[in-house]
Amino acid sequence: MKYFSVLLLALCLQPLPAWAADDATHLRERLTLEILAYQSTTAFCLLLLNHGGSKTQARLEQLLTEAEQLNNAAAWPALHSEWQKSIAFMRTNRSAAINNERAGLATEVKLRQFALYETLAEQRPDMSALPRQEQALLQMLSSLEKMVAEYTLFHANLFGGHAGIEMDITAQSRRFEQALAALPDKELQRAVDSKWHFVKGTLLAYNEKSAVYIVQSTGRSIARLLQEKLQPEQVASE
To answer: What is the pLDDT at residue 11?
Structure first.
């Protein structure tokens, strides 16, 4: 089964009442851009850490292409500008990351992506237009991807310093658990909870030990569970 790109989330979600459909579509697009920001950080940092090879290179380009397409069609000027800068930065510096050609590149990507994150946080929308379960799933997916991104970024920066970094992993873990507790689907809740408790301690101890592979593999496993529930028709067709 593929690790689905998040842009597809809007394609197979349960229908909303007609009066809410336009607002919900824009909301999903905005949340997709947020999740893509975290995923692209992770992919770029994996290249810096020499993890993943050609598959990670292809995934990064897929994420950037999806973000570019969605960003160009979106109506959020400040976010549009920051996303353009991130896309250009990652494409320009991808080769240097792969070949470890430039000292300090990990710090540069940290600063670039944190500027994007700041804009995302300032303009984060209210999700109340979406069904309850979808709200919980999207909040969990967003928090999960941000934790994985910050964990991977931290370890890509081990020799570049962490001045100016304010890690959000602890706060995001609380948001993840709040959304998990509110999930109406109890079978999914149990499945996610088991995997979450396996990786939670590692994520929270980000500054004590490096276990990038465990965080990546468990994060992908949890994300698949969430995405399967968000896009059942897409999963069935794979």
So the answer is: 37
User: Cα separations (Å) of 76 from 35, 90, 116?
Assistant: 16, 21, 13
Exposed e or buried b per residue across 51-80, where buried means at least 16 C-beta atoms within 10 angstroms of its C-beta: bbeeebbebbebbbebbbebbeebebeebb
Enumerate residues 6+ apart whose C-beta is below 8 A from 119: 78, 79, 82
* Length, in residues, of the chain: 238
CA distance to 131, 168, 209, per residue, from 175 (Å): 18, 11, 23
What is the rounded distance in angstroms from the CA atom of residue 193 to the CA atom of residue 49? 29
The domains of the chain are located at: 19-237
The pTM for the full model equals 0.86
Residue located via tokens 């993840």 = 176
Q: How far apart are CA 142 and CA 9, in angstroms?
A: 12
Which residue shows structure tokens 């149990």? 190
C-alpha to C-alpha distance for 227 and 154, rounded to whole angstroms: 26
Residue 8's pLDDT band (boundaries 50, 70, 90)?
Answer: very low
Measured in whole angstroms, the distance separating CA 15 from the mean position of its chain's CA atoms is 24
* Contact between residue 108 and residue 48 where contact means Cβ atoms under 8 Å apart: no
Task: Give the tens place of pLDDT for each residue, 39-56.
Answer: 999 999 999 998 668 999
Higher pLDDT, 125 or 58: 58
159-163 average pLDDT score:
50
The sign of the dihedral angle between the CA atoms of 63, 65, 70, 76 is positive
Q: Which of 28-37, 69-78, 174-183, 203-212 has the lowest mean pLDDT?
A: 69-78
